[in-house]
Design brief:
Elements: E1 12-13, E2 16-17, H1 18-26, E3 39-48, H2 52-63, E4 66-71, E5 80-87, E6 90-97, H3 103-111, E7 114-122, H4 125-134, E8 139-148, E9 151-159, E10 165-170, E11 183-184, E12 202-209, H5 215-226, E13 229-235, H6 237-244, E14 246-252, E15 259-265, H7 273-281, E16 285-292, H8 296-305, H9 315-319, H10 321-327, H11 334-340, E17 343-347, E18 350-356, E19 367-374, H12 384-397
The structure holds (2S)-2-hydroxy-3-(4-hydroxyphenyl)propanoic acid and fe (iii) ion.
EC number: 1.13.11.27
Enzyme class: oxidoreductase
Keywords: Dioxygenase, Iron, Metal-binding, Oxidoreductase, Pyruvate, Repeat
Amino acid sequence: MTETISHSPDKSIDDVSFDQLRQLVGLVDYDESRDPFPVKSMDAVVFVVGNATQTALFYQVAFGMEQIAYSGPETGNRDHKSYVLKSGSARFVITGGVRPDSALLDHHRAHGDGVTDLALEVTDVDKCIEWARKQGATVLDEPHDVSDEHGTVRIAAIAAYGQTRHTLIDRSRYTGVYLPGYQPRKGAYRKPEGAPKRVFQAVDHCVGNVELGKMDYWVEFYNRVMGFVNMAEFIGDDIATDYSALMSKVVANGNHRVKFPLNEPAVAARKSQIDEYLEFYGGPGVQHIALATNDILATVDHMRAAGIEFLETPDSYYDDPELRARIGNVRVPIEELKRRKILVDRDEDGYLLQIFTKPTGDRPTVFFEMIERHGSLGFGKGNFKALFEAIEREQDRRGNL
Ligand code: TYF
Ligand code: FE
C-alpha cells in the first residue's frame, strides 16, 4: 500500500510559500490519509471586542495588518460589525455588536475583549463533524452550505473550552474575499513610508487557559475528537510549583501547522497567572496568540514605535554566562536582543527568539507572543523562569498577590 505524505494541498498561502511556513511555524510530515479529522490550517482567529471599528485600526497600525473585508449595517448585517484583517497567511476577524440586543454584546459583557472562535480550514467538514460527534463533541452548528456569487463554503462548528468554538470551513469551492456576506473593503488607514511589508507572516500557536484539573481533559478532547497529537513540550508539577504556577501541555494537528498549548493553574506560593485570567475572563478562554515572524527585530521595533508594551526582561538575563553558553550563536549579536528584551531558547533542533506583549485589552487576559523560529519546534521552555517572573511583576503592579 502506498502511503501519501501530505504536506498541504495548497503549496502557497498568499505569498507565504509552504517552505517558508515550514521554517516559520515548524512543520513535520505526516500521513493525512490516516487522519480522522484532517485540518489544513488555521482559517481565522475571531475576536469579539467592545469596539471593532477601533480595534481593527489597532491591528492595522500596531500589527501591520491589512484590512481586506467588512460586514456591517452598510452591507445588510444589522446585528454587528466585522472587519477581516490579513498578514501573510494569518487572518483575524474583529467583531463587535451594533444592535443593543446583539448576542455579541452579552459575550463582551461577560468576557471583555477576547477570542470566540479558533476557526479551522478543513478539506471535509462532514467527515470531521461525523467523527467529532461520534467522539462526543458538542456540535454547535450543523454542516451547511453558504453561497454567494463567488461560490459556496461548507461550514460547521464544535464547542471547545469555555465559550470558545472551532468553526470548520471548507473554502475549496469559494473564491470570495472571506465568506458570503462580507464585501471586499480596505481600511482608510495608510501605512507610513518605511513600514515593514509585514510585521508577521503566520499564526504559530493559540493557547487556551482552562480550569484547575482540566488540562488533561482538554488534551484528551483534542486527541480523541480532533485527532491532534501531543507535542513533547510540557510544564509539569516540578516546574509549576517552583515558579510558573501553571501546568501546560501542547497538542497539534498531524503536520503541526495548528498548535494549541493548554494551561491550567497550579497550586503554588502565589496566585497563578492562570487564576487571574480565569477570574477576569469569566472562565476558560484563549490566553495568547503567537505570531510567527521572520524578522523579530523589525517586528518589535515597529510594534514598540506604535505603542505596544512588551514584558520586561532584566539585563541579567542576557548577561547570565550560563544562558550565553547554552544559546551559542544566533543570527544577531545578543546585544541586539538585549536592547529589545527579546528572549532566546535553544533545543536539540535549533533555536527560537520570542517576546510577549502585556495584555492588549482592558482586562488582564489576552496577550500576544511574537516568535521567530530557527529549527526549534519548542515553545521557549528555557525561558519559562524569566518569563513567568516578568508576568508576576506585572501581576504585582495590578495589585494581584
Ligand atoms: O505557548 C507557550 O506555551 C509558551 C509559554 O502564560 C507560555 O509561550 C506559557 C504560558 C504563559 C506564557 C507563555
Ligand atoms: Fe506561546
